[in-house]
TrEMBL record:
UniProt signal peptide: 1-24
Keyword Secreted recorded: no
PROSITE patterns: PROKAR_LIPOPROTEIN
Protein known as: YtkA-like domain-containing protein
Protein origin, superkingdom: Bacteria
Ranges of Acidic residues composition bias in the record: 83-93
Alphabetical keyword list: Signal
Region (Disordered): 83-132
Amino acid sequence: MLKKITVMLFSVCTLIFLLAACQADDNRHGSSDMLSGPIDVKFSTDPAEGIKANEPVELQLHISQMGDPVINADEARFEIWYEDNGQEESEDHGDEHTGHGSSDESDSHGDHGDHSDHTDHNNHSSNDMYDTGNEFVDAEEIGDGIYTITYTFDQTGTYYIKYHVTGQGYHSMRTNEIHVE
């Protein structure tokens, strides 16, 4: 009889401990600053049209999640390449890619320009490239979920700009085609 009571008491204590641990874990996740839901990224340029070679243009990302701006994104960067660098746009660059269940409904302003050959005339590091040979430029957060760079494209033609955004546990990337006059 004493053995039964001891086993039952031990079982009840274990159950209470497990329930308390699960409750604490739920509270920790429920009170976090992370919103549930995918991030939404909108790409734009300023000027929106008539981008010219050798003139600065602002590339912007508007990042939100469930209508709220994403502050302090883990990653917000642009991958930039000219159409003649030997890579085709369709070669892992054209399709939208999102991770962790995120959706990516981006504004792709098709007639916008951008790029530079991998020189440092934009004061951006061209050392941060993967095996693609494309230039990667980190965007600066300016507030309200807006991340931006100013970039000067040195020649006319078609460029591709792929943004890479990671924030709130989600990743999103999409390629935009830009035309420079």
